[in-house]
Amino acid sequence: MKKLNLTILIGLMLIANSIAQTKPNVVLILADDLGYGDVGYHGGKEIPTPNIDELAEHGTNFSAGYAMAPVCAPSRAGLLTGRYQNRFGFEDNPGGPFRQTVDTKPGIPLNELTLGEFMKSEGYKTAWIGKDHQGKYEQFMPYNRGFDFFFGFNNGASSYFVKGNNKQMLLKGNKPVRSEPEYLTDAFGREAVNFIERNKKKPFFLYVPFNAIHGPLQATPKDLKKFKHIKNKKRQTLAAMHSAMDRNIGKIIDKLKEHNLEENTLVIFYSDNGGKPNGNHSYNHPLKGQKGTVLEGGIRVPFVFQWKGKIKAKQQLDFPVAAIDIYSTIYNAINSKVELTNALDGINLMPYLKGEEKAAPADRNIYWRFLYQWAIRNNEWKLLKLKGKDKAELYHISEDISESKNVIEEFPEVAKKLKNEFDLWSDTMIEPQWSYQGSFGGPINVKKAK
Fold first, then answer.
1. Distance CA 448, CA 329 (A)
2. Element housing 175 (H / E)
3. Cβ partners under 8 Å of residue 129, min gap 6
4. Does pLDDT of 9 surpass 70?
5. Coil, helix or strand at residue 157
6. Nearest Cα to 85, choosing from 133, 148, 34, 142?
7. What is the Cα–Cα distance from 150 to 138, expressed in whole angstroms?
8. CA end-to-end span of the chain
9. pLDDT for position 66
10. DSSP of 338-349, one letter per residue?
11. Which residues partner with 175 through β-bridges?
12. Number of Cβ atoms within 10 Å of the Cβ of 206
């Protein structure tokens, strides 16, 4: 009897192990301040991006993919929770001297379930490799928000050459890394590849938020040499930084290929907000505006999914989607049954990725509220108001992605309807809990987070 029980037990263990190994891995790669026009599959010619383009070639590209905010931290807060970050007052980058209340600590509240916490609860090994800009307090650090492994820095930006006397601290877990021999983008690529190697036989969730191509504009001499034909030195440096990021994305994909993991791995790539031509010299062509605005150039970004054998290759979908959809899509891709305390705001994109659904989601609005700016977009129209402007602007965005013609005088009823819908949504959000970028406008009314 004991021998039989042992045989049954071993069999059950083997079955459990087989099930664990078939759970899909998830790799979520984030670029920082990447311009819409600076990837090859969007027509960019000046900077080759073969590895990013390969993801689009073997997967699905959403041409109207949106970040949740036009600056880094609130955009990422929406991504990591699958909810509008305005629900918990995360409307600006954390910190700063501007109207921060004594009883509010900038960061994702602990009652919000991050992607790391969710995936860990599903039995995944989890890693965060790259930039963390979700609050400086200990309780908000990645290793306290569901990530087993953390290698990166906690700030809006970092030098790409981390030496012993560098002011910005690089961390491995909660331990400082005083000196890093490699260019930081290469170091992040190295750690991502090593994480896959260590966890190739178990389900893993790998989050790689590169700080490239955010400033400071710094590149290696070897990468700069590839773009010596570009005369503008800042643009040349940006190109070298972008090339380094693409190279390291290629290393991650190559490691998946090495272990035959591509058909069991969902790979997602997008940028936290649009490029900043006046800052990092990235290009948003053909979009209007840049980082820091709710114009298309500030929030419309490269947005790609690849899962070989599971989702359609060489597919472009043109209806609007947003970063909050990523959490919902991962939830469904791994066939989770977990009952979430906080309802997700995003939609499940898997039916569209698989080609099971063709029509755009009906009656869907996507909203942005960024301190003194706001916008609402549906499949056809976009209404927005910019900082310092007295009047809202309306664009037939499905036909005019460059926002070249304000048609609010021609379609006042459309504008009125969208404004009413925005107001109804905004009234369900709480007020901003801090404002780092106080120069974006006048005073805001800050109250304690609920």
1. 32
2. strand 175-177
3. 149, 150, 151, 152, 188, 191, 192, 195, 206, 207, 208, 209
4. no
5. coil
6. 133
7. 13
8. 58
9. 98
10. ---SSPP-S---
11. 172
12. 28
